[in-house]
Design goal:
Length: 409
């Protein structure tokens, strides 16, 4: 069988026990990590061998295989450590790169459709597995003992410091999600925030949260594309939105950041990135999770920054923080999985848990990290050292807590 020959020639790190639908088993490799792959549909083996990047997730969604008692993560670890990513230079197909602009077709109408596919899923789904503040992006684990809620607030505080905010500054939040960061910045720094989102569901929830927080005079949420927005801001922040821009539009994005920011302004762009050269989006993720999405290489993002006129003040790479975040999301999702299966069906749950597991695995054993790009319009807008980022927080003698005034709405 083709997949048996493939596994026999490739599994050199760890071991894999393959269970066939007829009850036969075969062991590949030796030692740790150990993983199990149980097939229920014999046709799935050939499908995965022919198109692993897409069919691995597709056949799992279809219930054609399971990962044994240890779960998806050990299996994905063995597979990722023994097989190169399709985007690796030696494995990348020329036709994939030709299709790249079409895969990231994110003009105005397409962007709205793409956002709706994911972010307009009902609010309750996200509340089931996110932290109380509904932060749907990488947390910042300042200590090994930090829980998800504290780590997400630490992320907000880290961003607040990088923005160098003063009372009553005007801040633009591009891709404001459910409003958590905008509310945090308004409360903690006394700034006025305009949040932009293309998701009607996020717009509804964020607007309600602003009203409940009594911050209508400080925070305004708009259902608007950044390319249609006008104004001048002291600070611009964008968390988890740049992944939806698409490489053909990077220059447009940074040109707008430059044009919307005052001459002494500062911007903080927080995005998933890759440590490898430019490639294409995984086809399963593109179809089922983030249509139009693309994770940038540093070289792609910085080429657009340099051409925009923006000054790169600082770059920080967060490694493994998103893996911990995704692990926490998966754990919470599994606690309510039966309830979600009743609401949305087993196939949806298998899609979602594969999305969370494969994403965590990509941050642990592939090339995914998080970039925080601190940009400015003036050389003097940002301090010349990072000391200002690491002063003790209020009520935080040991670095464990974040801010004493944290409330959730």
């Amino acid at each position: 069988m083709q997949i048996e020959r493939l596994l026999a020639g490739k599994i050199r790190k760890g071991s894999l026990l393959l269970s066939f639908p007829d009850g036969r088993q075969r062991q590949f490799g030796d030692g740790e990590p150990q993983a199990e792959w149980r097939f229920h549909d014999p046709k799935a083996l050939a499908k995965i061998a022919a198109d692993p990047e897409f069919m691995l997730g597709q056949t799992y969604m279809d219930g054609a295989w399971d990962a044994g008692e240890q779960g998806l993560l050990p299996l994905l670890k063995v597979l990722m450590q023994n097989f190169p990513a399709a985007g690796d230079a030696k494995a990348r197909a020329w036709w994939q790169l030709l299709l790249k602009p079409i895969q990231q077709w994110n003009r105005l109408a397409a962007s709205r459709r793409n956002v709706a596919r994911h972010y307009d899923l009902d609010e309750s789904l996200f509340r089931h597995f996110l932290d109380r503040d509904m932060q749907y992006s990488c947390a910042y684990f300042r200590s090994a003992a930090m829980e998800l809620e504290a780590a997400q607030q630490a992320k907000c505080e880290h961003i607040r410091r990088k923005l160098l905010l003063s009372h009553d500054m005007k801040v633009l939040d591009i891709g404001c999600g459910w409003g958590g960061l905008a509310i945090f910045l308004a409360r903690e720094a006394g700034v006025r925030v305009t949040g932009l989102t293309l998701s009607r569901e996020q717009y509804r929830v964020a607007s309600e949260r602003v009203q409940r927080a009594g911050l209508e005079g400080q925070v305004e949420i708009r259902l608007e594309d950044y390319r249609e927005h006008s104004g001048r801001y002291d600070r611009i922040v964008s968390v988890g939105m740049f992944e939806h821009v698409g490489a053909p539009y990077f220059r447009t994005y940074f040109d707008h950041v430059y044009g919307l920011m005052r001459s002494d302004g500062v911007a903080l762009i927080h995005t998933i990135g890759r440590t490898s050269p430019p490639t294409t989006t995984n086809p399963w993720i593109r179809r089922y999770i983030f249509p139009g999405g693309y994770i940038p290489a540093m070289s792609e993002a910085m080429e657009a920054v340099e051409k925009s006129g923006l000054i790169t003040a600082d770059i920080e790479v967060l490694r493994l923080h998103y893996a911990r975040t995704l692990a926490a999301w998966q754990q919470r999702f599994q606690l309510v999985r039966d309830r979600i299966a009743m609401e949305k069906g087993e196939r949806f749950c298998r899609m979602w848990e594969f999305y969370l597991a494969s994403s965590e695995a990509s941050f642990r054993w592939r090339d995914l990290v998080v970039f925080q790009l601190q940009l400015s319009n003036a050389l003097t807008a940002v301090p010349t050292t990072r000391d200002y980022l690491y002063r003790p927080l209020r009520g935080d003698a040991d670095g464990g807590s974040v801010v004493s005034t944290m409330r959730v709405v």
